[in-house]
TrEMBL record:
It comes from Actinokineospora terrae. Gene3D superfamilies: Tetratricopeptide repeat domain. It comes from the Bacteria. This is Tetratricopeptide repeat-containing protein. InterPro entries: TPR-like_helical_dom_sf.
Length: 824
């Protein structure tokens, strides 16, 4: 599938990366796309001008500011296209056009004036203004600029400086040779008009701009150009004057100038002329909409928007203008759909579009959806006070506090890092969720040199860290070994971990175990297996060795869950029967074995055998004096919660209920006295009630199951999996809209289940008769997982806006691609 092949594996901040790629493709790899917006095609024309050695021929009049590329990069998160100059793009990602221009840039010192000027214009068009200064490192003199080609070069340098610095002294100096005493060249005419526009828009005093515009018009009239070129330059000058009229509040004059600019355009004579005309018409329409609003001209605004949408259907600006017009008419539902269309077509204005969508969603009573949109706005522009304020207003206390915290490093602005910093670099996780700081807990015990006798039960899936990095867009954290993390991303704790890993082969067994636990909790399960090659259990002689190799077996098993063949923890089973195995370790392994056989082999005989071993170990532990009352209560509660798989397999409902009652009784009464014990007690109660809810639903006790799920959420309202379980309950009750909102919470609090949460929310909202919400959820599912065929089908089913045709095509292509893969 060409549509997303290069974007696959990258998760944009707001829209699917493949969509951002296509709409803005010329900036990224120099090629065109059917979805490319008008202004992005400027580099295509500039490249043709370069090949034909036509630096003085007209190019697009609109160039994007220097921040545009960073916005594009930040929102699309296509790390491979993150470049500072043309040479930074890998050859296999670059189009033939980009490779040709990169080659010219590499040999810029050998270029003549014609090619240097043409290359500079292309660099401006692809929004690489810093590279222009490498091609044109110094200002030319006024006399040099009498040469039309050198004048184009100087204008390119001046444009680049303004894109980087605004109205700085260097930018003013670069414009000076072209503006002060303009020679009769195209570059001088355009530079004088451009300077008048920049002064009007950005300077405190614009009183001298009418003289600049008159000077530019005088220069234009004296040029030896074709009728088409004269008309184009004339229209551009008139468009520049609109800004000055607007600043004077002369809106009728501005409207007349726009009408004149449209009238003077001559019919194009070739494809390049057609591209220039389309771009000019698009710019005129853009300003016509703005001025119509200022004049209160609803009819003029509506007509201009319709023309703009027909001319440039995938441009964020015209989509925003359409949505704003709709909202002013009071149609919040349609405005919401249009703002969401605009947000998908960013990056310029994405966060603004999402904030406007938040406003409409709130007005329609879609509060949970509004919260999701506010979080996307924040993720898109985390440094913006407006996105932070909007999200804070819609968040509960703990999350609002998390958002308001200052950031010392750039990556600390990132939503996912703030939530789960411990998984990234052992930073401080700010999420109030129960499992956000598991790596930190493991590290603290490793630092203290003593593992806890009773540990927490949650084993995060191996893909958690990988998904977290992907969804955050913080690609520098995507390492498979702690030592590979760049120095500027490390915390002191991470440096200490690297030291432990470096000394792992010679460390004692206790240190190896503590280090292996931290590595697994961080998502480095494969590294644990690499550091601990397989070893016969018969060679193990000490309790510490047995514990370490049992942990290796757990890591191996967890890493295989979900794959074609689950790795049976046979080493652990041998360890449990080893004469040196301590009672507590035997107990842990026996309970683990009951769960394994119940889930994986479905063998009642094996599960019963291991239950008996677990019971014998528990009896011994409870009779001894080595463990505290807290530890004994925790062990017994966990025992009953796990071994009830045996009566479950026997379909013995009475025994199952009795033993789960005992597990819950212990979980609720466990005598915690320290902060860590309180955490373990809370985690155990949450797990126990989760199991009890499944028990209730399994026996058809819907109301009881619902109450238990709701209680689980009171213990940890930030656990995505539980919100998904609540959504399933609500869906069973026929409450589609509420189920959709619960699925949305799953997606918000990911990464576990993010794409699935969005896709299921889309299905629920579709059933509830909310197609606008449904479409957005399906698009967000595809943002996270572009392979999600059910989401693609859902999008094609409900799409009705700007991207309806794209949605249908995407679903067809994805299904065809999948069928071709299956046939192979």
């Amino acid at each position: 599938m060409d549509r997303w092949e290069r974007a696959h594996g990258h998760i944009g901040a707001a829209a699917p990366s493949w969509l951002t790629f296509e709409v803005h493709r010329p900036y990224l790899d120099g090629a065109d796309s059917a979805l490319t917006t008008v202004h992005a095609r400027g580099s295509l024309l500039a490249a043709r001008r370069f090949e034909r050695r036509q630096p003085t021929a007209p190019r697009f009049g609109m160039t994007m500011p220097g921040s545009y590329r960073s916005l594009l990069d930040g929102e699309a998160r296509l790390a491979g296209y993150r470049v500072r100059d043309p040479l930074g793009l890998a050859a296999d990602l670059a189009s033939p056009t980009w490779r040709r221009m990169a080659e010219a840039y590499e040999h810029r010192a050998d270029l003549d004036d014609v090619d240097r000027a043409g290359l500079a214009q292309w660099l401006i068009a692809v929004c690489l203004p810093d590279s222009v200064l490498e091609v044109l490192p110094a200002d030319l003199s006024e006399s040099d600029c009498a040469d039309p080609v050198l004048a184009i070069a100087q204008w390119s340098r001046a444009s680049a400086l303004f894109a980087i610095e605004g109205l700085s002294d260097r930018a003013r100096a670069a414009y000076s040779p072209l503006v002060d005493n303009p020679a009769p060249t195209v570059a001088h005419a355009q530079a004088v008009a451009a300077w008048g526009y920049l002064v009007t828009r950005h300077a405190a005093d614009d009183s001298g701009t009418p003289e600049l515009f008159a000077r530019a018009e005088e220069v234009r009239k004296g040029l030896d150009l074709t009728d088409f070129e004269h008309a184009l330059l004339h229209a551009r000058l008139l468009l520049r004057r609109v800004m000055h009229a607007e600043r004077q509040s002369a809106f009728d004059e501005a409207w007349q100038l726009l009408a004149e600019a449209a009238d003077v355009l001559e019919p194009p004579v070739d494809a390049d002329g057609e591209a220039l005309t389309v771009e000019m018409r698009r710019r005129i329409i853009d300003r016509r909409v703005d001025i119509a609003v200022r004049r209160g001209d609803r009819a003029g605004e509506s007509a201009s928007i319709a023309e703009g949408l027909a001319l440039d259907p995938y441009d964020v600006k015209i989509r925003m203008q359409a949505a704003q017009a709709t909202e002013r008419l009071g149609d919040n539902e349609k405005a919401l759909a249009e703002y969401l269309d605009a947000a998908r077509l960013g990056p310029y204005g994405t966060a603004f579009a999402l904030l406007a969508a938040v406003r409409c969603a709130k007005a329609l009573g879609h509060d949970e959806f509004a919260r999701v949109l506010a979080e996307r706005a924040y993720r898109t522009a985390p440094r913006s006070a407006r996105t932070r304020e909007a999200l804070t207003e819609l968040s509960d206390g703990p999350l609002a506090e998390m958002i308001s915290l200052p950031a010392e490093h750039p990556y600390e602005h990132n939503w996912h890092y703030r939530m789960y910093a411990a998984y990234f670099n052992l930073g401080e996780s700010r999420s109030p969720g129960l499992y956000a700081s598991l790596p930190t807990l493991a590290y603290e015990f490793a630092e203290a040199g003593a593992p806890p006798e009773v540990n927490w039960q949650r084993l995060m899936p191996p893909a958690f860290r990988a998904n977290l990095v992907r969804e955050s867009g913080l690609s520098e954290f995507a390492v498979t070994h702690p030592a590979d993390l760049p120095a500027h991303l490390r915390t002191p704790a991470w440096d200490q971990l690297c030291a432990w890993v470096a000394r792992f082969p010679t460390a004692d067994v206790e240190r190896q175990y503590l280090t292996a636990v931290v590595l697994f909790r961080l998502g480095f399960g494969k590294l644990v297996l690499d550091l601990l090659p397989p070893r016969p259990v018969a060679e193990l002689t000490t309790p510490a060795q047995l514990r370490l190799w049992h942990w290796r077996d757990v890591v191996r098993y967890v890493g295989s869950v979900g794959s074609a063949g689950v790795a049976e923890p046979t080493a652990s089973f041998e360890i449990a029967d080893h004469p040196a195995c301590p009672t507590h370790l035997r107990f842990v392994i026996a309970v683990f074995a009951v769960v394994f056989h119940a889930r994986e082999t479905k063998s009642l005989e094996a599960a019963s055998l291991w239950r008996d071993k677990a019971q014998a170990s528990l009896d011994e532990l409870l009779a001894g004096e080595e463990h505290s009352p807290f530890e004994k209560a925790m062990m017994e509660s966990r025992f009953y919660r796990s071994v009830t798989y045996v009566p479950f397999l026997r379909r013995d409902r009475d025994q199952l209920a009795r033993e789960m009652d005992r597990a819950e009784e212990l979980a609720r009464s466990v005598p915690a006295s320290t902060r860590y014990e309180e955490f373990l007690a809370r985690e155990n109660l949450r797990a126990c009630l989760e199991s009890r809810s499944k028990e209730a639903f399994g026996f058809g006790e819907h109301e009881k199951g619902r109450r238990l799920v709701e209680e689980v959420l009171t213990i940890d309202p930030y656990e995505p999996k539980t919100h998904m379980e609540l959504a399933e309950v609500l869906l069973a009750e026929g409450r589609e809209r509420e189920a959709g909102e619960s699925y949305l919470r799953t997606a918000r609090l990911g990464p576990i289940g993010t794409a699935r949460g969005f896709a299921l929310a889309g299905e629920c909202f579709d059933r509830a008769g909310l197609p606008v919400l449904a479409e957005d959820c399906f698009v967000q599912a595809l943002r996270v997982d572009p392979h999600a065929v059910s989401a693609a089908r859902g999008w094609a089913r409900v799409a009705s806006g700007a991207l309806a045709g794209v949605a249908a095509e995407y679903a067809r292509d994805l299904e065809a691609w999948g069928a071709a893969r299956r046939s192979r």
